[in-house]
């Protein structure tokens, strides 16, 4: 339904926003680390793209040096555009939200390689949350019935599915309240701070960024629900890429220095930051289980 329509609408965007992989005449073209002359790396705009791109460019430049192959960074229109681009062979690598990866793995064959580690070598994680004004009569998820709730964007792990799962656990269906998709995590927070909704999803990553930038005064709001920890976003490779290329990219990612990834990690609340660490499909099994529990399919997200 919604994703199907979004995929169709995004097709034109993807074809113009992502350069075809095989059009470079770079001397390293044809090598295991650079089979098509360049590497197309896509990300979703989970924060303001003008802020994300400089941070990801540091990571992309370091990866380019490791692989001796140009890395072309693409901030896609949305999740569906990124999935479509990888499915059509226009992306070699893609970073997806955890639940987005579930569907990217099924539709585009995305395989997880690495995610963002902490300084102690453990995988970083984040939480979803629902917030209300401090003086709101809303005390729990049950009290959201009949209220306005701002969510981030359709299909987002912390910005859509997990908050709706919390509602479902309390017997509240989507039709029992007014759900407003704000268009992203910062936009959902803005709807709350502007007073246009009764409650909003704010995940720990967005909260940390907003507090550091001074755009959210936590003393004026309360968190009424918090999810269990969610493993951070995987960087994935398309499933039909050559095995030698997959291995080379994985090795390169796992050998990047902390300074190469910490600017991106700052947006993901990776504190204190460490290097990227290896992840597998099993790492994200709780998200596959969530999709099954919620009876989710691509049409639902």
Automatic annotation (TrEMBL):
Domain Solute-binding protein family 3/N-terminal: 38-268
First and last residue of the signal peptide: 1-29
GO terms, biological process: transmembrane transport
Gene Ontology CC annotations of this record: ATP-binding cassette (ABC) transporter complex
Any Pfam family: Phosphonate-bd
Cytoplasm in keyword set: no
Keywords noted in UniProt: Signal
Keyword Signal among UniProt keywords: yes
SMART domains per record: PBPb
Highest taxon, organism lineage: Bacteria
Family: Belongs to the phosphate/phosphite/phosphonate binding protein family.
Xref: NCBIfam families: 3A0109s03R
PANTHER family reported for this sequence: PHOSPHONATES-BINDING PERIPLASMIC PROTEIN
Name listed for the protein in its UniProt record: Phosphate/phosphite/phosphonate ABC transporter substrate-binding protein
Highest classification ranks of the organism: Bacteria, Bacillati, Actinomycetota, Actinomycetes, Micrococcales
């Amino acid at each position: 339904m919604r994703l199907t329509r979004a995929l169709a609408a995004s097709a034109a965007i993807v074809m113009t926003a992502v350069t075809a992989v095989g059009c470079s005449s770079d001397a390293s073209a044809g090598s295991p680390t650079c089979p098509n002359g360049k590497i197309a790396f896509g990300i979703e705009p989970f924060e303001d793209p003008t802020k994300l791109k400089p941070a990801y460019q540091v990571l992309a430049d370091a990866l380019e040096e490791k692989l001796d192959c140009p890395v072309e960074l693409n901030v896609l229109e949305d999740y569906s555009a990124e999935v479509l681009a990888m499915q059509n062979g226009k992306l070699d690598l893609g970073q997806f939200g955890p639940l987005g990866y579930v569907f990217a793995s099924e539709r585009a064959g995305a395989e997880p390689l690495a995610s963002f580690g902490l300084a102690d070598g453990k995988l970083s994680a984040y939480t979803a949350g629902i917030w209300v004004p401090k003086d709101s009569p809303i005390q729990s998820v049950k009290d959201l019935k009949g209220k306005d709730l701002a969510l981030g964007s359709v299909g987002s792990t912390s910005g859509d599915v997990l908050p709706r799962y919390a509602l479902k656990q309390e017997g509240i269906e989507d039709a029992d309240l007014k759900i407003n998709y704000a268009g992203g995590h910062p936009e959902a927070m803005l709807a709350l701070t502007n007073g246009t909704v009764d409650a909003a999803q704010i995940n720990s990553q967005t909260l940390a960024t907003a507090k550091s930038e001074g755009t959210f005064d936590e003393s004026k709001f309360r968190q009424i629900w918090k999810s269990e920890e969610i493993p951070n976003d995987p960087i994935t490779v398309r499933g039909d890429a050559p095995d030698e290329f997959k291995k080379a990219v994985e090795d390169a990612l796992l050998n990047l220095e902390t300074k190469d990834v910490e600017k991106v990690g700052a947006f993901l609340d990776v504190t204190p930051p460490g290097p990227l660490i290896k992840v597998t499909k099993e790492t994200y099994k709780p998200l596959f289980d969530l999709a099954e529990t919620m009876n989710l399919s691509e049409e639902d997200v």
